[in-house]
Amino acid sequence: MSLLCVRVKKAKLQGPPDKFNTYVTLKVQNVKSTTVAVRGDQPCWEQDFMFEISRLDLGLIVEVWNKGLIWDTLVGTVWIALKAIHQSDEEGPGEWSTLEAEVVMKHDEICGTKNPTPHKILLDTRFELPFDIPEEEARYWTRKLEQINSLGDDEYSFQEEVQKKPLPSAASQCYMDGKIT
């Protein structure tokens, strides 16, 4: 289980400032979180969100919405592959992403976005290690995440890693005929 940390920082929206009263939704693994609505063409949210991630083959969907009197309208969306997000224990400066008008679907799942809009959003995304794991395990996972991060665009196969060096097995706690096996 990985801990995804997202800080929704700010946006640059094209159009008259009085036209916008925007909020951001984050969607990952059937969980949805939303920022407060902020007025203007350069909204600043500076809101933090955390998600427990069990599948790294999915993506984070970021949507910027403009509040309306009757219904809200989509300003733009961006899809960020979870595999592209690096591990860090510290907040960074973030990265600007261009909001796009449409999502790309593959096998009933969102796998990207297309048709850029003139709008941009600044997000800081990173994976952190959970706080409640033993220190030795934290060091192990930090090394693994650093290895994965250093690979860049190369594919990393956890299956191959497991086949090369299996994880140590825990001591057996089974009792059989009064003996520990």
Task: Write up what this structure looks like.
The chain has helices at 135-150, 158-164, and strands at 2-12, 21-28, 31-34, 38-39, 44-53, 59-66, 73-81, 95-106, 109-128, 175-176, 179-180. The chain has 181 residues and is mainly beta. Strands 2, 3, 4, 6 and 7 form a five-stranded antiparallel beta sheet that branches. Strand 6 and strand 7 (73-81) form a beta hairpin. It is globular. 19% of the residues are buried.
Give the SSE layout.
Blueprint: E1 2-12, E2 21-28, E3 31-34, E4 38-39, E5 44-53, E6 59-66, E7 73-81, E8 95-106, E9 109-128, H1 135-150, H2 158-164, E10 175-176, E11 179-180
Antiparallel strand pairs: 1-5, 1-9, 2-3, 2-4, 2-6, 6-7, 8-9, 10-11
Describe the biggest sheet? 5 strands, antiparallel
Shape by Cα distribution: globular
DSSP strand content: over 45%
Number of E-state strands: 11
- What string gives the helices and strands in order? EEEEEEEEEHHEE
